[in-house]
Amino acid sequence: MSSKNFLDVDESIIEKNLLIQSNEEQEFEQFVSGFLNPESGKLVKPAPGLCIKLFKTDKSKVFINLCHHADIPPPDDITKEELVEVFNSKDPEKFCIPLSIGIEHMEIDKSNARVPVYDVAVNSEFFKKCQNDDVFQTFIVCATIEGVAEKFKIDISAENPIILKNRKCIGSLQQHRIQQRPPRPSTFKKKPLIQELNSKASLSQLDIHVKPEYRIYVQPENNPKNIILDVWMPDVHNSQEIDLKCGEDCLMLTTNKQTKYELDICLPYTINQKNVNVTFNTITKFLSVVSPIISSN
């Protein structure tokens, strides 16, 4: 049998070319669909904004390209204080943000692995507002993650998203078809611009007192060893602003900013007060408290 010489080929080059071809075919199909059915919407190419790295519950990586375009309808104008009020209203649909979520496409990350990527586009002016304010940026990142998870029925961990500093997107942004229809109106009611205050009111009375959103769960579920408390405080910038006190079966939390978060809850288990682990994520604004459970046996 005659021998043949073969060249070693980098498979990632082949995969990358195949992926580019696949994306081009998807965009071509979108273009033809719009040409045959003009009423289906306007085809636009958004500009890059933020690249968000996340993980599924199975530890596999997921990327979201948060991009923007001027033709996407903007949400209702809202202040930071009003946005905090929406978060604590138990009704997140009071404030609606028009999102254009593209189809899943596979790209190659810096470790040369194929990863799923989702492009989510928002209005350009609203994106600028989110860039200049941590509360708005936290809100749009959370809304984007929730939108992708709901549309594609995937379980994404939103506790520690990583916003990549050196890149605005991964792969090539896809075209989006923008429906020519007005956005769903928000039901959030703004407070009057002029509000009568008691002339004797002190500055402390004008502070905003808010009960933050939180959730409690145990790990593992069948035989709990740890109880975990996650508290979301979008107006807190660092851990120095938080005062946390742990009892055997209770937790008390306060902050010293103008937006004063206050939380006093009873725990369903007795915990080891000397071995409590507390972390605060300055990007997601989540405080995580992990406490070992003292066995009742």
UniProtKB/TrEMBL annotation:
Q: Name one GO biological process term.
A: rRNA processing
Superkingdom of the organism of origin: Eukaryota
InterPro entries xrefs: PIH1/Kintoun_subfamily, PIH1_N, PIH1D1/2/3_CS-like
Q: Which residues form the PIH1D1/2/3 CS-like domain?
A: 220-293
A Pfam family this protein belongs to? PIH1
Coiled-coil positions: none
Residue intervals of the PIH1 N-terminal domain = 26-183
Q: Name one GO cellular component term.
A: R2TP complex
Task of the protein: Involved in the assembly of C/D box small nucleolar ribonucleoprotein (snoRNP) particles. Recruits the SWI/SNF complex to the core promoter of rRNA genes and enhances pre-rRNA transcription. Mediates interaction of TELO2 with the R2TP complex which is necessary for the stability of MTOR and SMG1. Positively regulates the assembly and activity of the mTORC1 complex.
The entry sums up its family as follows: Belongs to the PIH1 family.
**Record's protein name:** PIH1 domain-containing protein 1
Q: In which organism is this protein found? A: Melanaphis sacchari
